[in-house]
Amino acid sequence: MKTPATPAGRVVTLTANPSLDRTLDLPGPLDRGAVTRLGRSSTEPGGKGVNVARAVAAAGADVVSVLPAPDDDPLVRALQALGLPLATVPIGTPVRTNYTLTEPDGTTTKLNEPGAPLDDAALAALQAALLEQARSARWVVLSGSLPPGAPRDWYAALVRALRGTGARIAVDTSEAPLLALLAAGPDAAPDLLKPNTEELAQLAGLPEAAVADDPDAALAAVATLHERGVAEVLLTLGADGAALSTADGGLWWARPPRVAVRSTVGAGDCSLAGYVLADLAGEEPAERLRTAVAYGTASAALPGSAVPAPSQVDRAAVTVTPGLPGHPAPAAAAPAAGADTH
Ligand SMILES: O=P(O)(O)OC[C@@]1(O)O[C@H](CO)[C@@H](O)[C@@H]1O
Predict the structure, then answer these.
(1) Neighbouring-strand partners of residue 12
(2) Secondary structure of 296-336 as H, E, C letters
(3) Composition of the chain by helix, strand, coil, percent to 5
(4) Mean pLDDT of successive 10-residue stretches along the chain, which has 342 residues
(5) pTM of the prediction?
(6) Contact call for residues 151 and 188 (beta carbons, < 8 A)
């Protein structure tokens, strides 16, 4: 496995619903109804696109994070302190706070607020800021839930508007915005979609276990995404790593090493960042997948929403094989390395 070249090209991320991520470390299993004395707690800038941007920036690549927030919001100040290039659209409502409860065995519980509502003017300003930044981009990453006020098919409208820029488009979302995106037709299909098994099941109209436990069902659901115009599907599989399926028939599975999981929050975002970084470095699909899983694994070993530096990412420890040989069911109970439940 050769050392990847330096990533070349600009990445733009959109986080329409950013967050401050407040992580509460529980001393034991969550005791519902009781008073718990907390150990460490911390607050980090978050939101899926923000996490992708932070990981891309940590790798030294050119990135800008587009998001709505008041100019003096703690999220903006935290990202400025990290030196992350920002294109913010000012709004009047503070950024939401999302809560993460982590238990000593790695179990992670997320409590996400709905987010600051965006009116039509804010949505138009956000789209304009995105298109302006995307003009010089190799990749545009649209990530996370949509805030109150955004139409559920907004990502579809953005993909259509972005097509003229020539940038490759990745989308990572769930529930209604995901369903609306895939229902919108091939002209709204992103180049890359990053579902986890829960999101793939939402798309297939099946319970999660039906695709998580049955590779044939998962592959059938992925095939329908290609039929709807999605070129590449990066399917994150939690403890089992990830699979990459390409519209020209390529299929690989990457298995992570086992590591002690601190927090799975942001592991999927870091996987997506790794994939994009490898693409910017000119890597072939199987190596893009390897890098994605290495980044997701490194993220899961870090606390809260922390993103890994390249020195913490071990690509050589990830095994990539064609197809889905001996595909085991993802661990249902205990989260493990690379787990992507959030
Ligand atoms: O509510 P959404 O937008 O679906 O997800 C938001 C969020 O859970 O995603 C990130 C982890 O992927 C966190 O930084 C953030 O709190």
Answers:
(1) 64, 140
(2) HHHHHCCCCCCCCCHHHCCHHHCEEEECCCCCCCCCCCCCC
(3) 35, 20, 45
(4) 75 98 94 92 96 98 98 97 98 97 88 98 98 97 98 98 96 97 96 96 90 88 96 94 96 94 92 98 97 97 92 97 64 38 44
(5) 0.93
(6) no
Pairwise CA distance, residues 269 & 304, whole Å:
13
Residue 269 annotated among the catalytic residues of the structure = yes
Q: Give the residue carrying structure tokens 């010089």.
A: 136
Q: Is the shortest distance between the CB of 190 and ligand 1 below 6 Å? A: no
Exposure of 221 in the CB half-sphere (CA atoms within 13 A): 26
Asked if 75 and 18 touch (Cβ cutoff 8 Å), the reply is yes
The whole-angstrom separation of Cα 132 and Cα 120 is: 18
32 membership: H or E segment, kind and range: none
98 ligand 1 Cβ < 6 A: yes
Domain architecture of the chain: domains with CATH: 12-51+66-138 (3.40.1190.20)
Is the Cβ atom of 47 under 6 angstroms away from ligand 1? Answer: yes
Amino acid present at 334? A
Question: Do residues 129 and 101 lie in contact, with contact meaning Cβ atoms separated by under 8 Å?
Answer: no
The residue contributing the CA closest to ligand 1 atom 6 is 47
